[in-house]
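The authors assume throughout that readers already know how a fold can be written as discrete tokens. What matters is that the chain and its backbone geometry are given together, residue for residue. A single example would do more here than another paragraph of explanation. For illustration, here is how one protein appears when written out as sequence plus structure tokens.
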Amino acid sequence: KMLEQQIRCFIDNIGANINSPYEDYNPTITADGHTMYFTSRRDGKKIDYALDGKFFENIYVSERDSNDIWSKAMIVDELNSKTHNAVQGLSHDGLKIITYSIDNNGDLFESTMKNNKFQRPKPLTPINNDDSHEISASYTYDGKIVYFCSDRKNGQGKHDIYKATLDRKGKYSHIENLGPVINTVYEEKCVFAHPDGKTIYFSSNGHEGMGGYDIYYATFENGQWSKPVNLGYPINTPGDDMNFTITADNKTGYYASNKKGGLGGKDIYKITFLGPEKQFVYYTEDNLLSDGLKPFIENKEIKTIAIDSPKLTLLKGIVIDEETKKPLYAKIDLYDLEKNERLASFESNDQSGRFLLSLPSGKNYSVNLKTEGYLFHSENFNLPDTAKYQEIEQIIELKKLAVGKEIVLNNIFFEFNKATLLKESIAELENIYLLLTENPKLHVEISGHTDNVGSAAVNNKLSLERAKAVVDYLIKKGIANERLTSVGYGFEKPIAPNTTEEGRQKNRRTEFKIIK
């Protein structure tokens, strides 16, 4: 019956740059699919005679280049000790990692990257439980939830999937079992949270499947989990299919299998999802690998499982100094402007300046980047529920705190043709207030600008009133009046052509300039 439930894909061994003659598994990737951490029991460490006579586990890393070629895997020394160390989860930007150690009956540890190296792993408390075995973990897109697997008491079965929510102290607490829709009386393992913020993938031997562990996905919507969907053949087989992970665009997945034809005891495989097909399903004969084989076409009627394109925006880029063009570290705050709520805080890589954010559709986002000694930079992404997958790359140039430097306040909004600030402006206004509070000697000009629709007199008046509205907000917050100047330029200083709606929209703006 399960053979009639198939998914259109190619499955390829990822190759000898990652796989070895030994066991390679637990692939974890960044959301853009360019960096992979995985676990290997290859030659290079002491043998665990007490357990199974094989080499201890080590954590390795590989990078994928523009030609889709993975680099030769390198051991990550700072994450490995003298015993077993296995990667379990990775933040979507690759700057945080969750690892597993066999100590204390099996615990999870967290490490953050600094200076291009992960810091010493720290126990992931209070997720770890002295009386239970914690394995497999995954961050949500905003880092506020960690899903993990544990065999702790009072679960649905053996290993269940749980979630822990980040509290105000920065600890993952408020631990909840995902319940009987997801968890069975048997085993649920290898949980992975998709960057869309609502989908998880996991392996189970308790739901209807083909035998052994199969891979499933489920979504959390309207406060409840959907019934898990089996990914189908040829990904799932009568053997154990585990450690599934997928890129943000849902085009490429990875998992581990000991299927016939591999390089070692267990290898990592790449899944290329082909999308919808009119009538037939592609799969390969024998060992289901596409290497050197033509797709086999079967004409009988088959239920095809679809992996839809996710509704999210992947924002990635680099933060640099406006003048020197050198990379900068920056703190990145993500806001829901509709709720005036800070959703999460991230960081750019402190050496390369690179950053990566997942923005699920359905929110009006502000992305605010700042670092000491510089003006902040903000971007607006208003993504309706229907917004399809897209990738946006940006180079963010931060300007030093110096006289004459100015920025566009991209998240200041007014009622149409009025000077009334909308509630979506509060996050930006608070960032201005914080900047002025932290730098009490700054004197600034707030200027209003319009497009060229209407008379100069009307636009000059409107732009001045809008600038004054921002100044009035800051004065009410306690900023001294003499530090603030409001100016209305109307359409005197366009930054884009007024011949298009896009250009006119850019010209309708509020700016912040240091004048003293």
